[in-house]
Amino acid sequence: MKGVVSGISLVTGDADVLPGTPLPAGRLADGLAALVAALNSPGSEFLASLHPVPAPDPDVRVQIGGRPGTADIVAAPDAWRALFGRFTADADWACSCPIGSALAAALAAVEVFKRLVAANRGGAHDRLAPADYAYSAVNYQAGTDAAPGPDVPVLRLAGPAILGCGAGGSGTACITAMHPRLSGNLALIEPGVHKLSNLNRYLATTAYDVCLPRHKLSTLVEHLARFAPSLALELHARPWEQLDSHPWDTMISAVDTVEARWAIQRRAAAGATIIDLAVDDLLYAALRVTPGGWCLFCKHPYDPDLAIKQRALRWGVPLDTVRDWTAADKAVDLQMLEILGRTQGKPVSAFSDLLGVPFTDTPRLIECGSTTLQADVPGQTPILPLATSAAAVIGASELIKQATGRSGLDNWLAHDMRRNPESPWRKHRDPLRGCPNHAAQSFVSQVAG
Ligand SMILES: [Zn+2]
61-75, pLDDT tens digit by residue? Predict the structure, then answer.
């Protein structure tokens, strides 16, 4: 949360980095210092800092493990659960499964952020998670219903693929790689290079990566080589649609447009398991496509005009205007930028790079990459690592379940950490009437019956 947090004070005994922690081996304080230093470059406007002494008047106190005392948040994990407050009595610090640790960290970061927002406003946040709280990635239930689940002592991946190595996809890989005995094969599919705003959200990305900028796969390969050296990688630095074949039987879909999700489902191998991750503000959602449940066409019904509608919304003009601009491939002029600026609530100068660019070459998601930092809960998804990290934990959790023969999510989950922090919604969703994917299946079953 660079730019929101001015400094973190670390009060700890001198300890070694434990296996599975994504820090260089050695002393914990040195590893954390190296991590924080990697977020800064000579050109950084804000410098991240870590202080090895207690803060005189901290805004938020977080305690990892131990008996609840004066800290605002007391967090601990077991294999599959994030444990807070009195639930930390169940902590297991020796388990290999990284899901509980990653989930506890992701949820604790959200609760820290809410308190910082409240402190900046001089008030209190009214939607905090309960102090005594447990949440399980086994059954995605909370409190005493949160299933503990057995540890996963060894993890071997049988060649799943991660489609889209942005914040969610790279996070899924990094969290899976926190398993200290990870081996097998993993395919990574990602065409893009880093941009500046990735630094705030990607778990393994450094200031160096965004300054160059490096390819997103390059960063991820280096991280996985360090922390999961027995994992064999298959790399595709191209969009999914451009691959010659799509043979994977398990896929994490972490792409960021509806069209990309349609393309994934359309080209996936028959019977493949698709686990789709999505974020919006402080909400994360996961969909495990199952034959009798929602698919990606049920969740996002096909609309041939979707792209044009989204562009019309972002540019603040009627559909017909977007159609005209597209047909003529009109060069962006000042008048167009004035409408865009009004619609996006930003000065025209914020979009000056687009002047003269042919309309069809303008970025689809113009708010990405140029989002101003707001120290407020709404609209933080493009700039902070909160919902994306939580979604990545779910991706890693489902990947581990699939690899170890456990039953996975059935079939939809959403968790709004802003409005309803304690209760994820889970549901088996019935296929949408008229979904072309399911229409074909039900026709086959009627004929068979
Ligand atoms: Zn469907």
Answer: 999 999 988 899 999
